[in-house]
Model the fold of this input.
Amino acid sequence: MLESIAKSRSLEALEALRVAYLGRKGRVTEQLKGVGALPTAERAAAGKAANELRIVVEAALAEREMVVREAEVKRTLATPFDVTAPGIVPLLGHRHPVSVVLDELVDLFWQMGYQVADGPEVETEWYNFEALLVGKDHPARDMQDTFYLSEAHLPRTHTSSVQIRHMEAHRDKLPIRIIAPGKVYRNEDEDARHSWSFYQLEGLVVDEGVTLGDLKGTLEQMMKGILGNDTKVRLRSNYFPYTEPSVEMDATCAICSGSGMLGDVSCHLCSGSGWLELGGAGMVHPQVLRNVGIDPDRYSGFAFGFGPERLAAIKYGVDDVREFWRPNFRFLEQF
Ligand code: DAH
Done:
């Protein structure tokens, strides 16, 4: 046994010997097991001998293992190293496409003198709905299917709640000029353009003499910054309970530049209309200002809200917004 151990040249061979000697049916193990069957007078001596044999075999295996390992290291080090072999490129992290667009937006608004505001993702009905004039039975509650956490609490369905919180906290420190990026949640079925959770970017300005023209100019500045200098913005009449008048904002299509055509086929992004719907906006309703203790006879404001994912999808030509949140590195690494 000791000779075989001393001659073995690999870890695999040593392991095979260990099993053959010390394994459950190994030679040494069998010898140890056989002790019990011997006459009483012989047991003590035979037991002692078998145990000593086990110790010697174990030690021989351990010693040989060290020698074999050392030889293996020497062999590896002696192998020439190919400096021209292609390396393994480590996977580097980078910013998410939606974060890139959000950061650009924050930058653009900083330049226009805005500050970034924040609010909780779990809201009360007051901040998410009532202060914004969306009463219990208001049909607008159906427009935004709500998850409820309890009677009183819900994950916010839009970032418009931050308008109310910010105006309450700053009504004595006017003017207000903020944007509020953040996540919102809706009990909606998913498809290529909808998701149960997504980002919004809310904007709010309250000051003396703020007009719809200011709103349009601001939106135009922002869209040019994100989608390119040729981008035009159009406001269409719409309805939101918390703004009067309310508008829908469209921008000229980033792919066909507003013509609706790509060569002689109609543009797939805007379906040939030349315009992309981006979000809602309007002049803050006087009653909303009253709700937070701001005098609507002296102050006016505008507000807007839209989805940065949709903007990112338009900017990068992505057809399905769900791609942004899948763990698909091949997709995410392109940006
Ligand atoms: N909260 C609206 C939504 O989630 C978007 C919106 C519309 C925000 C008009 C506004 C606004 O601030 O004035 O669909």
